[in-house]
Each structure stands twice: as structure tokens, then as C-alpha cells.
Amino acid sequence: xxxDESQWYVQKxxxxxxxxxxxxxxxxxxxxxxxxxxxxxxxxxxxxxxxQVPELIPEELLDLDTDVxxxxxVDARSRVDQRSAHNVVSPERRTHPDQMQExxxxxxxxxxxxxxxxxxPWSLLGIxxxxxxxxxxxNSTGGV
Length: 144
Fold this sequence. Notes:
Blueprint: E1 7-12, E2 15-21, H1 22-31, E3 39-41, E4 48-49, H2 67-80, H3 97-114, H4 122-141
């Protein structure tokens, strides 16, 4: 079993970052700083997709296709985002939560069709993509 004391390296393309604790990797997944396409390693030599390491995936990313699950994700993301207190976005530039949730559900449905060989639940990939979509949206609106 992996504990919070485990150290993980994250590979983004040719760039390696870390080491990070299990908790930090989970937090970065919630914030979209670690993506489902990134790879992780304990030793910096043997790499695997982050989606293949269930211990690293926060619970809040496992049930985005329901209203309750989506709200858990939004709440968790707000809790771990240190910048949220300083994040001022005008109301007209914000995405309505229903629109954001629908987009995440649509992303999940597309990923669900393409990820037939995945070992983890389909929703994990959709959730990760949804979180990435939120981060990209906030970055594009100047909200981050």
C-alpha cells in the first residue's frame, strides 16, 4: 500500500518534476496541473500513466457524471486551490456550473468511447479531462 510518504516524479513530455508526495500529486490532479497524459514514477526510471496508479487519483475525480459527484469535485478543487481567494473573475466571464458540468459530461462520453482498453473506470479519464477543461477555461479567461 502506498502511503503519503511515498515520493513520486511526474513526467510531462520530456520534462521531469518532483519528487512529490502522494497527496501533492492528487492535489495537482484536482487542479489540472497533472494531466491524465502525464506519467509517474517512484524511482525516476520506471514510468507509468498516472491513470494506472489508483492511489494517486482523488476520490473527487471518480464520480463527475452525477450532480453530487460534480459538486464534490468543485468543492474539493476550491479547497485545494490556494489562488482561489485571490481569483476575481467578473460574473459575465464565468461559466455557469450547469454548462461546465454538461461540458464535462460530454467530454466524459467522448473519452468513454475511445478508452475501451483502459483498466481504470471510464469516468476517471473523463474527470481528468474535465478538470483540465476547467483549468484551461480559467486560464483563457484570465481567472487564474
